[in-house]
């Protein structure tokens, strides 16, 4: 049988390392970990874990959307004039 507590432990460490390196996949792993904790909560009848982790998943999703939007290269408007060269 799969030990969800060990899986959650590994996901926590890996997502923390990735987020410490400012890599967005850490948010995805943290979301997966929150789902695993919800399953643990259901299996052990510790239902207090569920709302807290669902809230965390929402925060991760909002953060991921913002993070990815900030990483997209900005596009100049079509009617923008090119910048003059320095030697002109």
Characteristic key phrases:
88 residues, mainly alpha, 3 helices, 67% helix
Protein described:
- The protein is an all-alpha fold and 88 residues long.
- The chain has a domain at 25-70.
- 67% of the residues lie in helices and 0% in strands.
- The chain has helices at residues 4-20, 25-43, 49-71.
Give me the secondary-structure topology.
Layout: H1 4-20, H2 25-43, H3 49-71
Helix percent band: 55-70%
Total helical segments: 3
Mean pLDDT: 86
Amino- and carboxy-terminal Cα gap: 72 Å
Which descriptor suits the 3D outline?
elongated
- Secondary-structure content class: mainly alpha
Task: Describe what is shown at a glance.
The chain is mainly alpha-helical.
